[in-house]
Design a protein that fits this description.
Number of helices: 14
Order of helices and strands: HHHHHHHHHHHHEEHH
CATH topology of the domain at 57-198 and 372-379: Cytochrome Bc1 Complex, Chain D, domain 2
Distance between the termini: 47 Å
Radius of gyration: 21 Å
Helix content: 25-40%
Number of strands: 2
CATH class of the domain at 57-198 and 372-379: Mainly Alpha
Strand content: under 5%
Largest sheet: 2 strands, antiparallel
Structural class: mainly alpha
Shape: globular
């Protein structure tokens, strides 16, 4: 299928993306930092930013220092970047995250790619509506422990106040405050940096938004057509700007949040492992058992392993899961036929990929990688290797 026809076919689903990417590309060519382009470059959808934490370049830069600073953890060895590593599209390569104390968590680390446009920030909760609220969870949560800051606040603030870099950067970021080095301002600065993690430089973006017919290989082009086809239906869950659904921006119509049971488990009568039952844990409705948020597919080739519990090791294994309409676990305490889960989404069905289709889809997933985003020094640890993170 020709590029023009493909672009027309996806125009409704992609919406404003062409203008957005053009604007972002222009800022990169002009030599601007990504965080300078976040609030209002021409053509971008305006992010929803809290009124008490408006964006500024100084605040985003302070947030970058804090994001990589291991001294924010109770052990002094762990940073936000320990779980959110730039080279892995701000994930960690682990099945499930490991906190500052070495505690293994129950869920896989989600990518921070274009997180400014997310409506919700966890795998299965709908209660967290801002990056500021989300930041409090890893900082102060006790089950599981991530940063472990609870009870260590005073010592952490004293350490930061003695640092000459922060003595300059906090007043620049919060000029109206007489005592700017505070826990609330740490949260605000990190959230502002996270809003600068913008990725629109993949081969997929060049192909769809700039009309670069050579950006994709023939195999990747076929995979893209398959992905957006009604027959496969992948884009019914992985849709919109971030290929994950559940996106928002300023003055956008509020749509219902979407969570999906993909048939990953079936312990009988639709049950999931008690260790993680998805949306059910918040709503206590049986039909919400096993429902989780669709993650972004941007940079997906870098963010293995997959699913909420990291139990699917590769993209090839992901396709195995969907090719049969749900995973079968043959042995052990979680054995069961996922495709028969009574609460499985009606969108998940047997697909029976051919060998060629499988190869084409994998080629398409590869073209979603934005190498500029994962190598950009302006998003990297500003003090490496002076303050290495664990």
């Amino acid at each position: 299928m020709r590029l023009r026809a493909l672009t027309a076919r996806w125009a409704g689903a992609l919406g404003f993306l062409s203008l957005a990417v053009s604007a972002y590309s222009a800022t990169r060519q002009a030599g601007l930092r990504p965080d300078e382009a976040v609030p209002l470059p021409a053509g971008f959808p305006v992010p929803s930013v809290p009124a008490d934490n408006l964006f500024s370049i100084e605040k985003a830069e302070l947030g970058r220092y804090l994001f990589y600073d291991t001294r924010l953890s109770a052990t002094g060895t762990f940073a936000c970047a320990s779980c959110h590593q730039q080279a892995l599209a701000f994930t960690d390569g682990q099945p499930t995250a490991i906190g500052a104390t070495g505690q293994r968590h129950r869920r896989n680390t989600m990518s921070l790619t274009n997180v400014v446009y997310n409506r919700t920030f966890n795998w299965a909760e709908a209660r967290t509506h801002s990056l500021e609220e989300q930041a409090l969870v890893p900082m102060f949560g006790l089950d599981p422990i991530e940063m472990g800051m609870t009870g260590a606040e005073e010592g952490i603030l004293q350490t930061l106040a003695a640092d000459s870099e922060y003595q300059q950067r906090f007043p620049l970021a919060f000029p109206a405050e007489s005592a700017p080095i505070s826990i609330p301002n740490i949260v605000r600065a990190i959230a502002t940096f996270e809003r600068s993690l913008i990725s629109f430089g993949s081969a997929y973006d060049r192909y769809v938004t700039h009309g670069d017919a050579k950006a994709l290989s023939p195999s990747a082009e076929r995979g893209l057509e398959l992905f957006f086809s009604r027959g496969l239906g992948c884009s019914q869950c992985h849709s919109g700007l971030n290929l994950n659904g559940n996106t928002t921006w300023f003055e956008r119509e509020t749509l219902p949040l979407e969570f999906h049971n993909t048939g990953l488990y079936n312990l009988g009568r639709g049950r999931y492992p008690k260790s993680d039952r998805g949306r059910f844990e918040e709503t206590h409705r049986k039909r919400d058992t096993g429902r989780f948020r669709a993650p972004t597919l941007r940079n997906i080739a870098l963010t293995a392993p997959y699913m909420h519990d990291g139990s699917v090791p590769s993209l090839d294994s992901v396709l195995d899961h969907y090719s049969v309409g749900g995973r079968t676990v043959h042995t052990g305490p979680h054995r069961g036929i996922g495709r028969r889960n009574r609460y499985k989404s009606r969108l998940v069905k047997r697909l029976d990929f051919t060998t060629t289709q499988r190869a084409d889809l994998l080629a398409f997933f590869d073209c979603l990688t934005d190498q500029d985003f994962v190598t950009d020094p302006r998003l990297a640890n500003p003090r490496a290797p002076a303050l290495p993170f664990g």
